[in-house]
Amino acid sequence: MNENKFAAIDTPTPLLREAILVRNITDMAGFAREAGVDLRPHIKTHKIPRLARIQVNQGAVGITVAKLDEAEAMIDNGLRDVFVASPVTDPKKIKRLLRLAEKAEISVVADSSEGIEVLAREAEEKNTKFKVLLEINSGYNLCGVLPGEEALKLAKKIQEKKSLDFGGIMTHAGHCREAKNPEKVQEIGQREGRMMAALAEKLKKDGLPCSRVSVGSTPTAKMAGMIKGVTEIRPGNYVFNDLGEVALGVAMEEDCALTVLTRVVSRPTKERCIVDAGSKTLSLDRGVKGEGIFAGYGKVKGHPEIVVSRLAEEHGILTLPPESDIKVGDLLEIIPNHAGLVVNLASTVHIIRNEETWEEWRVSAVGSK
After folding, report:
1. Which residues make beta-bridge pairs with 164?
2. Residues 210 and 308 in one domain
3. Structural domain total, the chain
4. Same domain flag for 203 and 304
5. Sheet holding 164-171, edge to edge
6. Both 234 and 257 in a single domain?
7. Would 292 be classed as within a structural domain?
8. Regarding beta strands 63-65 and 81-84, do their DSSP bridges make them parallel or antiparallel, or are they unpaired?
9. Residues 299-309: pLDDT tens digits?
10. Distances in Å between the alpha carbon of 319 and those of 100, 118, 255, 286?
11. The whole model's pTM is what?
């Protein structure tokens, strides 16, 4: 790249190209409209309230968060419909939820009898109600119950609680990232949608309202979202895309809005150079379960011959051909394996418009509580 283009920006730092970002947001919003499903994007990917407002302005019905820190930051910045998609079972955190519910429409998730009980108890003490979705395990084997009798039992338990309102069912097909090809991703997404639609019908036949049938993950959102009976999709990484989405066949490199700007600080040998972006910037992600679906720890934009072969905490070690003209002081851009982890490690991102630095956005929804 032209080393003077972004010379005024301190490195390492994430760059976010506005044109690609807007295209990605518009594309997913358009899909949701055409498919007749609600779009409730997961903001854990970007953690930027300003970006969340753009998503809502483009048609999202609300947002999804993983942590209460994220919910608080988003609500403080004007977002008013928030789904907390991780089970909250600590009474102290539920009290935080209740305070947030005074400012915004809050829905939560549960997947156990114990979780339902503590939500009900805390809500009853405040003489209020929680809208609760039941989390279903669609194959990721993280949180969630299987779509059988246990799901029916827990759904009934939620509905029976005076301080809870059964809002529907949700799932996250995170196991799609273990897929080896786009065909497998499509299969997982379609199975996710069909399973959730079938469970919703079963619940309705048992007298349980199921107004939201919510599915997640960027790779499967469009596959599952096309299934009749699914009402909501919760993709997150689609705003940026990264090498993970490229590897799964749901995006191309030109769809990757986020890169990391880094500077070459050393070239100790002809075959190796060092940049100032290490694991504290790029993360050590090499794929689900560490299976290493990536050639390295990111891809140097415009330089397919270079491999980000190793990361120290503060430095990246790049392997390159001996004849490469890369020199100390050069600026490079690295497309990350996992964009969400990069933003989580940053305090700000630089927005690029027409290949010029436009402005800096703060990553406000930081924290893990």
Report:
1. 130
2. no
3. 2
4. no
5. 38-39, 232-234, 212-216, 164-171, 130-136, 105-110, 81-84, 63-65
6. no
7. yes
8. parallel
9. 999 999 999 99
10. 49, 53, 25, 17
11. 0.94
